[in-house]
Structures are given as structure tokens and as C-alpha cells.
Design a protein that fits this description.
YciF; elongated; about 150 residues; DUF892_YciF-like; Ferritin-like_SF; 5 helices; mainly alpha
């Protein structure tokens, strides 16, 4: 087999594998975003500071927009939107809800809630950033553009 044919076959296999990773990552983040829609109101209710409550409520609105964007991506890829349990976000949400239960209302609890929210946000940034790179590598700038909206 010539080097050109071998290289082309490897490139095709690489793209197929990367496409599967993107698909799995989309299912993962779709579940994660939907799970956050359920968790954020609990964090807002537990917050003491009114500005923090407002921040959680605003983030809930953004998270709903993220769900809609991921649904658009699935549609662009010709797939039905579906989620797959995201162990990372499940764990981060569980940890945040433990903060709600373990600490008395006040500045320290609010600080712990902020830390919990930042952990989830960093997970999202890593996931979306990687998916944007995968989409670009696969020649799906339309998908990359949508996913980039989440990072803006």
C-alpha cells in the first residue's frame, strides 16, 4: 500500500474517531447542562447574598440558552438531541448540594457556593473549548461557531 493511501485511510479513521468523541461529548454536555438547570435554583435558594442569588438566577437563564445551542448543534449534525449521564457534572452538583446542607447561611456558605459554581463553570469551559477544536478539525465551522457562542 502506498504511503498516500495509508495516510488517507489513517486520516479518515482519525476523523471518524474524533467525530465519535464529539458526539459523545455533546451527549455528555447536554446532560450536564440539563442537570445544571435543576441544580442552579437550589443554589440560588441557599445563597444569602442577594447579588449571589441574582448571579445564580442569571446563570440559570444562560444555562437554558446553552441547552438550546447544544440542541441546535445536534440538529446541524443530523442527530436527535440526547444526553448521557455526565459523571463529572453529577459529582460537582452533588458536591454543591452538600455545601447547601453542611453550612449555615452566611458569607462562608456563599463563598463555598461560589467555589462550587466555579468548578462547574471550569468543567464547561474545558468541554466546550475541546468540542470547538474537534468541530474545526472536522471541518464543521458551523458547529464550532455555535459552540463558541457558549464560551462568549
Amino acid at each position: 500500500m502506498s504511503n498516500t493511501k495509508k495516510s488517507t485511510r489513517q486520516g479518515t479513521q482519525h476523523a471518524e474517531h474524533l467525530g465519535k468523541i464529539l458526539d459523545e461529548s455533546l451527549k455528555d454536555i447536554y446532560w450536564a447542562e440539563n442537570h445544571l438547570v435543576k441544580t442552579l435554583p437550589k443554589l440560588s435558594a441557599a445563597a444569602t447574598d442577594e447579588l449571589l442569588k441574582e448571579a445564580f438566577d442569571a446563570h440559570l437563564g444562560q444555562t437554558r440558552e446553552h441547552v438550546a445551542i447544544v440542541e441546535q448543534v445536534f440538529k446541524l449534525l443530523g442527530k436527535e438531541a440526547s444526553g448521557k449521564r455526565c459523571a463529572a457534572m453529577a459529582g460537582l452538583s452533588e458536591e454543591a448540594l452538600e455545601v447547601v446542607e453542611q453550612h449555615e447561611a452566611g458569607a462562608a456558605k456563599d463563598a463555598a457556593l461560589i467555589m462550587s459554581a466555579q468548578k462547574a463553570e471550569h468543567y464547561e469551559i474545558a468541554a466546550y473549548g475541546s468540542m470547538v477544536s474537534f468541530a474545526i478539525h472536522l471541518g464543521r465551522e458551523d458547529v464550532a461557531d455555535l459552540l463558541t457562542e457558549v464560551l462568549s
